[in-house]
Amino acid sequence: MSTSGTVSADRMVDTDRYPLSDPDGPAWRAVVARTRDELAGHGCCVLPDFIRPELRGELERECAEIAPLAHTRIERVNAYNIALDTPLPEDHPGRVIMERGNAFVARDHIPATAIIQRLYASPVFQRFVADCFALPALHELADPLSALTLNVIAPGRAHPWHFDTNEFTVSMLTRPAAAGGVFEYCPNIRSAESENFADVAAVLAGRGERLVRRLELRPGDLQLFRGRYSLHRVSTVRGEHARHTAIFAYSERPGVLGSAERTRQLFGRVLDEHRAADAVRGDQLLD
Length: 287
Fold this sequence. Notes:
Elements: H1 3-12, H2 26-42, E1 44-47, H3 56-66, E2 71-77, E3 98-105, H4 115-121, H5 123-132, E4 139-140, E5 148-153, E6 159-162, E7 169-175, E8 179-180, E9 183-186, H6 197-204, E10 213-215, E11 222-225, E12 231-234, E13 237-238, E14 243-248, E15 250-251, H7 260-267, H8 272-275
Antiparallel strand pairs: 1-11, 2-3, 3-5, 4-15, 5-14, 6-12, 7-11, 7-14, 8-13, 9-10, 9-12
Helix pairs in contact: 1-4
């Protein structure tokens, strides 16, 4: 662990509540234990006021300044992010088509001095997140674009119901919507053994309210989420400004990059590293 990473985290994180300055100490272990319990029970844990109060205005300003650099792509999708012409039964939830209005600022557009950039690269923060997910270690993505991104959802747009490909997600709201833009999720609606299509279909049809939870997120809150088995969305953003969320992408193994095609979809460009990505990919999944 580098000293600079620890010092940087101390400056940004409210260490009275989240003792990153004392890895493996009793307070660290207590926070990690609570977080693991929530993740096990609900698939999601929010660590409120993770960023020091005096830095939240700076956090919002820094991200708002780079938000115009986001690449926007409007797509028609389903909850499983599979091809829309995939042969499926008539009542299959994968036949429900939604519009996704996502925009992403790539890591190479985020200044090195930005709070989210320094936090993402902090070794002690990485160790803390790994511990919360009960993982031996986490690695920064080797991807110069998708390792750290700012997600921008403009007024009138939404991130519709979906499942994540990754087992875990780390994110931080940096500016809420004036209205709407609520994170909604259905904890553990499916498992590795059962897709539970009936409940997924009910939620997509607006008949599954009993299954849906909603989070009141504030700038500086750290969200840890297991989105592989929990259907989730960000509802339509309303008001005069966009909703901003930093997404910290880590992997359990080093050297991971996105595919060239997916990178082009997200950022409108690819780099030489992506063209050679197949050499370091560890699976044959399409995404």
